[in-house]
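@channel sequence for tomorrow's demo:
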Amino acid sequence: MLLEAFGFGLIAQSSLFLAGLAVCWITVPTRVIGILAGFGAGALIAAIAFELVPEGQTNISGAEFALWTLIGVTIFLVGDAIVEKRFGSEGAGASMGIVVGSVVDGVPESIIFGIQIGAGLTVSPSFIAAVFVSNIPQAIAPSADLWAAGWNAAKLAQLWGVVVLACGLAAAFGFLITQVAVDAMGDRAAAIAAGGLLAMLTNSLMPFAYQRGGALAGAATAVGFLLPVLNSPPA
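structure tokens (generated this afternoon):
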């Protein structure tokens, strides 16, 4: 079961690694990168609204959910500030801000997977698929800029490999939590992920999408948001 949780974490987030390396061999036009980033932003907004918020409000009060959401915002802002100090606020620095957002999103998300497995709950294949697909533009966007800034394939592989490995370990950690706390749920992790994503969307991914995709980035955002709605069954 522990290895199953670890595997779920790796598989769900592995598209970050695959898409992040694809830019080394596939030239993606700047406008297309912006449109993909917009699509990814829309998919992430849908994930926050339809997955993370309902998950986070299952067993905790609205006030506690808000507190953990703000903790997620703080985690992103601190990580982003460290990246900006190291790489600057433009070029590679702006792209690394999106990578930080991927970590703040992926790690709590993976903890939720591990908790679900440890609690004997069914992990929705459609949710895993949604995470896998939404990660693709989220990885392509910053990787294309990092590649243009002089990063090679090995350096990109190391970057995304560490992110994906951290997500696998986070899923295993989520499983271990349930062995200590039988009634453990993923609500706080969901709130942290929601907060980090909201901050990353505003500060990094959506400005990135508009700068490169122009007005079409907004349309792509709407499409990314609507796809999960179209695939959901009627109430």
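heads up for whoever presents: The chain is about 85% helix and 0% strand.
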